[in-house]
Amino acid sequence: MHGDQALGLWDLGTHPTAAGPPIQSDRPPKRLFSTAHSAFLFGKEAEHAEGFATECAVVTHHRLEAIKDPVTGKTKMIPAGELAEPYVIRPTSETIIGAAFARWTESYRDLPLLINQWANVMRWEMRPRLFLRTAEFLWQEGHTAHETKEEAIAETRLMHRQYEEFLRDHLAIPVIPGEKTENERFPGADMTLTVEAMVQDRKAIQAGTSHYLGQNFSKAQNISFTGRDGTVQHAYTTSWGVSTRLIGTLIMAHSDDDGLVLPPRVATQQIVILPITPKEDSRQAVLDACQALAETLRHHSFQGDPLRVHVDSRDLNGGVKKWEWIKKGVPIRVEIGPKDIESRKVCVQRRDQAVSEKSFTDKGEFIQNASEILAEIHNTLLTRSTAFRNSNISACNDLDSFHAHWSGENPGWLFTPWAGTPEQEDALSKQHKITIRCLPISTDDLPATGSKCILTGQETTTRAIWGRSY
Amino acid sequence: MHGDQALGLWDLGTHPTAAGPPIQSDRPPKRLFSTAHSAFLFGKEAEHAEGFATECAVVTHHRLEAIKDPVTGKTKMIPAGELAEPYVIRPTSETIIGAAFARWTESYRDLPLLINQWANVMRWEMRPRLFLRTAEFLWQEGHTAHETKEEAIAETRLMHRQYEEFLRDHLAIPVIPGEKTENERFPGADMTLTVEAMVQDRKAIQAGTSHYLGQNFSKAQNISFTGRDGTVQHAYTTSWGVSTRLIGTLIMAHSDDDGLVLPPRVATQQIVILPITPKEDSRQAVLDACQALAETLRHHSFQGDPLRVHVDSRDLNGGVKKWEWIKKGVPIRVEIGPKDIESRKVCVQRRDQAVSEKSFTDKGEFIQNASEILAEIHNTLLTRSTAFRNSNISACNDLDSFHAHWSGENPGWLFTPWAGTPEQEDALSKQHKITIRCLPISTDDLPATGSKCILTGQETTTRAIWGRSY
After folding, report:
1. Among A40, A90, A397, B183, which is least packed, fewest CB within 10 Å?
2. How far apart, in Å, do the first and last CA atoms of chain B sit?
3. What is the dihedral of CA A225, A226, A232, A234, to 10 degrees?
């Protein structure tokens, strides 16, 4: 196991547990891109490698050389120092973490293992989209290894619920938790759980996933241990992650034509105080009143943390400042002018309401209610996005209306009984540029459907959500 | 400016401020690795690109294809989808951040700008060494842009001091702050400040750097603004960073043959309490006493944070547990057995002292003194490493003893008057596999030297520290 891999390079040719330094050479190897130790690619793990094969950033050279173009006379930098074996920048880290787990696991006493890392990963995107699909992105990826199947599945479900709760309670985004079909599963997983969010163009965003990997990776990577009965067994592993894609989801779920709308728990500033200073002689008094209010508010808390309050005392036009904070999505804006000091009132505006709406409130009352207002804003955003999503999921029980649905502009999601094969699912998906987003765990918030598969007519208890996605 | 760059891919051919999506093609381009827009590489920035040219991870393909070897019949994955232009994974991010700065800067009112990011960067290492030189590493990189040269230099020096203080006050590592010579400067910088640490094999580690970039990058990337006088000017920029290399430095500065030795401020656990439970009937009482002690200690603080205390109640052999915490470098170990409960004493052992040393202390007294003991441990480590370093820096005033010095095993550093040219410095460096680590800012802690350059005999006020380094 060499240093590069430990930090995330994913060696294509060498089995990750093999010892020794990386083979590097400035001379072209005899067989270009030969994969001398290709055992790594076989067995279950080949499924994983092949699953990511179409979106790999492949490093083939390790330096640049300046050469002079004989025609133009200009210098350019060209790749040099060809590697004996190409490297793939990690699209995910099961391979790397698994190699470490294999070294750490001797006895059942070493289990369970839990590793979480924040790492940049790279998946080559032909059509990048800011925050949703970029060649490189930051995520957290958790990896666990367990003694039993039951424990590993419980861990997979635990993280699935945590993602659901994080989206709901912090980002004010309702998600549908469910399981991916075999076609949409993480390459190498036995079960992939997902939380699916709908954004305002009615597209789906896979906002987080949690995978039960069974013994597929542990067998390929030899994550084995001596069990309680003295026999050598393979661990059951899981992995799960959310990425900076959540930022894109957040923007597309709540923002409006005036800019960003931030749920209070993730807003950098929850309250911005804007001093109104029309006259020079009252200017300092207004600034002082604003700072005093900010200081008082910071002694109050929302969801266990002190309120995050900012006073914008920049000497800029009031309208410019106000619109800047609207665009930045700050939940509460407070204006204080010379008259408000006398009347002990403040002008409160909320980002979840129209820009024209404002309420003049007694300052003491506002201070007492500030965190309650933040809670209301969170609830408004969550209620609004839940209502929007629910009104854009329709039950569908016959194939004709299923086909017709997708020709509409920005079609919502369809909820159908489903008993088709992976091949049939794939055909329908390709035909309409849709996918089964998930087989929901609960149908409580979903419309009632019939019980016959929309395609095959078979009786089924399986229900599927279909939609376009990012 | 396309999405990939925003997240860190460093496009070789296209100027980073150019608009439009990345050019990608599955077909080989007409001119392999053509750099159609090579303007980017000229001017001052070429120096930067060429400075990193020998250690670049170059991405040339964006997917893998499974092919069957006609001879062996085995499947292997080979690079496919050749890119029309190769990409370099960022070795540092001036190019990317500068492109953003250029878009954000219109008026002097937009300055100063400060961005800090935690990012993985990649520099291809032929001889990787864990924590010190790895192909990929995590660091923080700060980037600033200023209206004036003075402000930018002040920022460069501010961060330089912060790194010095962080190493001294958190890691208990004394460093020599100084300036790099032109030869050792960051490619494209006007001035590179460094903090140099000595580890126990007397090698130097460049532990952090802060660069004054002048207008070199701002001119190449057009980071311009309308100044107070209405003219268009170029900003003065800086960049600075420390990396996971600090972990390697920490390990090599303090550890001993028994394992890690952690300075208290960065120790995950500052105090570990080990219950001694020889008899089953007193077991629970001992465990309870340990938990109660831990809880009390957590209400005390060290350097402004609550004490980090762990009770190791695992049912393992006492010696095994004790050695585990020694190896992990925990500053204070406390043992409590059945007799100690009666006598209200605890057995205290310190990681900065021999394993055999222990003191039986009144429990109440220990609680009162715990944070004081942690402060003492910090000071012991700092004093010890400072003394070690100082005893391994010798003044050297003649060339013969300079040459002779480097043939010794693990030679320490030499401190000399220096007035040589970059070429002369390079020749001496290559001859002895050494470098000028820095021209120290202060000579207060350093031995007295003569005033004639060790090589040229010229009178000089410049003093240089020479050493082997990682």
Report:
1. B183
2. 37
3. -30
CB A418 within 8 A of CB A464: yes
Query: A335: which strand partners?
Result: A274, A347
Here the tokens at position B52 are 């990193």
CA distance B98 to B223: 7
The two structure tokens encoding residue B148: 């004036």
Task: Give A56's contacts in chain B (Cβ within 8 Å).
Answer: 61-64
Are A220 and A44 contacting, i.e. CB atoms less than 8 angstroms apart? yes
Q: Quick one: tokens of B127?
A: 């001889």
B60 by DSSP, 3-state: which? strand
Distance from chain centroid for Cα B102: 28
The two tokens of residue A465 are 């959500």
Q: What is the DSSP string of A15-48?
A: -TT--SPPP--SSPPSSTT--TTGGGGSHHHHHH
In the chain, the amino acid numbered A198 is M
* Phi, psi of B354, rounded to the nearest 5 degrees: -60, 150
**Separation of alpha carbons A382 and A387, rounded Å:** 8
Count the alpha carbons within 13 Å of B350 in the hemisphere toward its beta carbon: 20
Length of chain B: 470
Q: What distance lies between CA B125 and its chain's CA centroid?
A: 16
Instruction: Tell me which amino acid residue A71 is.
Output: V
For residues B348 and B357, the answer to whether their CB atoms sit within 8 Å is: no
Contact by Cβ (8 Å): A260, A167 = no
Asked if B33's CB is within 8 angstroms of A54's CB, the reply is: no
Q: A-chain residues within 8 Å CB-CB of B60? A: 58-61, 79
In the three-class reduction of DSSP (H, G, I as helix; E, B as strand; rest coil), residue B116 is classed as: strand
pTM: 0.83
Residues of A in contact with B49 (CB under 8 A): 64, 77
Q: Which of A76, A95, A243, A317 to mutate to test the interface with B (most CBs of B within 10 A)?
A: A76
Task: Per-residue pLDDT tens, chain A, 470 aa: give them.
Answer: 233 333 334 433 333 222 333 333 333 222 222 222 222 332 345 677 778 888 888 999 999 888 888 888 877 788 999 998 888 888 999 988 998 999 999 999 999 999 999 989 999 887 889 999 998 899 999 999 999 999 999 999 999 999 999 999 999 999 999 999 999 999 999 999 999 999 999 999 999 999 999 999 999 999 999 999 999 999 999 999 999 999 999 999 999 999 999 999 999 999 999 999 999 999 999 999 999 999 999 999 999 999 999 999 988 888 999 999 999 999 999 999 999 999 999 999 999 999 999 999 999 999 999 999 999 999 999 999 999 999 999 999 999 999 999 999 999 999 999 999 999 999 999 999 999 999 999 999 899 999 999 999 999 999 999 999 99
Best CA proximity match to A381, nearest among A324, A333, A329: A329
* Distance between CA atoms of residues A87 and B156, nearest Å: 37
Instruction: Give the closest of B79, B120, B130 to A33, CB-based.
Output: B79
Which residues have a Cβ under 8 Å from the Cβ of A55 and sit 6 or more positions away? A91, A123, A124, A125, B62, B63
